């Protein structure tokens, strides 16, 4: 029994003495130094690299240490030697405008920019044709779009003498704004009246009208539409609206009307407004609401386009 305890004591002593010696020998062994150093050096280098790259992000989230810089026209970080920081050049010359017009007016076909009207008598007095086009950043500041302005002529005074339609297309010919319902059966549901334009989200109208386009510092192009009414036996009166293409529609962002100009309701009952465009300015004049001696206009206010706020001030 005594020998058994002696053997156990010897084994325990050997473990307590020999094992630490082996560990220390491995630590002090020059061959083991290389292994330990490579492990710790790799970990430290990796941590330094992560800190270097991750800690150098600029205000746009780009990593200058990795060669990335912010490209405003493409709205992303890039390496200029891999990808040029240039706006995408859209090519609209390949697009067939008659096909684009059919997308804007699904109920009609076009030839050389002129619509073929349905064979109903109510249409025979009307002419729908492409008026002009405008290229700009209407929906996306990084890529240009094509806007088509289509004019409708022949509408009687009771329905407004001026009617126009707008459609915005991308470089692939996709319509980015609402299509027109002109020529649909639903439009003529009330006594075959062709003058029901209120529900057409592509239509702009009045007795007179004019479009102008303005660039803004947000990178987009805005649309100004000046329209007016000329009731019988009265002078014409104008008003304006500024539109921005957003969410697939023409969103009104500013109304240039009596309220905006500080004209009271009672004063507005007796006068009209005449608005004329000159570059980035609108000249606003007052006119009598009606007059037997002519609609003499007097200067009232000049408005100027504000590139920073994207409105007239």
List the helices and strands and how they pair.
Blueprint: H1 2-28, H2 30-54, E1 69-71, E2 76-78, H3 97-104, E3 109-111, E4 114-116, E5 127-136, E6 145-153, E7 162-169, E8 203-206, E9 208-215, E10 221-229, E11 237-246, E12 249-256, H4 265-268, E13 271-278, E14 281-288, E15 298-306, E16 311-312
Antiparallel strand pairs: 1-2, 3-4, 5-6, 6-7, 7-8, 9-10, 10-11, 11-12, 13-14, 14-15, 15-16
Structural features, described:
- The protein is α+β, with helices and mostly antiparallel strands.
- It has three domains: 55 residues, no CATH class; 31 residues, no CATH class; 216 residues, no CATH class.
- Helices cover 20% and strands 34% of the residues.
- It has four helices and 16 strands.
- The strands form five sheets. The protein has a four-stranded antiparallel sheet with strand order 5-6-7-8, with helices on one face.
- The relative contact order is 0.08.
- About 6% of the residues have low confidence.
Can you describe this structure in just a few lines?
This protein has helices at 2-28, 30-54, 97-104, 265-268, and strands at 69-71, 76-78, 109-111, 114-116, 127-136, 145-153, 162-169, 203-206, 208-215, 221-229, 237-246, 249-256, 271-278, 281-288, 298-306, 311-312. The chain is of the alpha+beta class and 313 residues long. It folds into 3 domains: 1-55, no CATH class; 56-86, no CATH class; 97-312, no CATH class.
